[in-house]
Amino acid sequence: MRARRLHPGALAKDTALQHGATNRAGDAAYRAAMRDLQDTYWLEVCAALGIRRFGFSRRRMTRAEWHKEKIVRNCSRAADVKLGEDMQRVKTAAAELLKWQQDLEQWRLQMLGDRDRIRQEIMRETDARYREHIEKHGRLYQTEVALRIETEKQLAHRTPEEELICSS
User: Fold this and answer.
1) Domain that includes residue 56, residue range
2) Running DSSP on this structure, what letter comes out for residue 7?
3) What is the 3-state secondary structure (H, E, C) of 32-75?
4) 80-113 tens-digit pLDDT
5) CA distances to 86, 107, 108 from 19, in Å
6) How far is residue 20's CA from residue 22's CA, in Å, rounded to a whole number?
7) How many domains in the chain?
8) Model pTM?
9) Residue 141 within a domain
10) Count of Cβ atoms closer than 10 Å to residue 141 Cβ
């Protein structure tokens, strides 16, 4: 059958038999391949879900193995507690950093507002000075024009003899 080529246990047994192994060795290869398949499945699927490899039965361990596991379990708990504390500190620091960023942004906006306000004040002052300057020079110009017109009128009414006297 073709499906037999997809079965890892059957494939391992067939390979062992083709290389001259006994039926007993082929069965051992079959069991090893299936055990490997189950181990791989457990590592890739079940371990991440927290499912134990050998179910809920009592595990047979020596006293030394049990003590090692107990130490690992206690260290793991301590590490989890430390990690939780560290994560809380990180969250607190992140919240504080966010507040600082918000404060900085608020200050930046305030500075921009102050800058714009100062710029507007300067523009108003400059504009007022400019208008004052223009008005002053406008008045001076009008005064000079009036003086020139009056001088021209006076010159127009002079007689040629008066001009000779004024020019000398």
Assistant:
1) 1-60
2) -
3) HHHHHHHHHHHHHHHHHHCCCCCCCCCCCCCHHHHHHHHHHHHH
4) 889 989 999 999 999 999 999 999 999 988 998 8
5) 57, 80, 79
6) 7
7) 1
8) 0.37
9) no
10) 10
Q: Which two tokens stand for residue 110?
A: 């305030």
> By the 8 A CB rule, do 8 and 33 touch?
yes
Q: 13 and 27 in contact (C-beta within 8 Å)?
A: yes
The pLDDT score that the predictor gives to residue 1 is 59
Please tell me the number of Cα atoms within 13 Å of 94 on its side-chain side.
Answer: 6
Distance CA 4, CA 76 (A): 44
Q: pLDDT digit string (tens) for 106-148?
A: 998 899 888 888 989 999 999 999 999 999 999 999 999 999 9
Q: Residue 122 corresponds to which amino acid?
A: I
111 inside domain = no
Q: Which of 54, 19, 55 is nearest to 35 (CA)?
A: 54
Residue entry with tokens 């006297």: 165
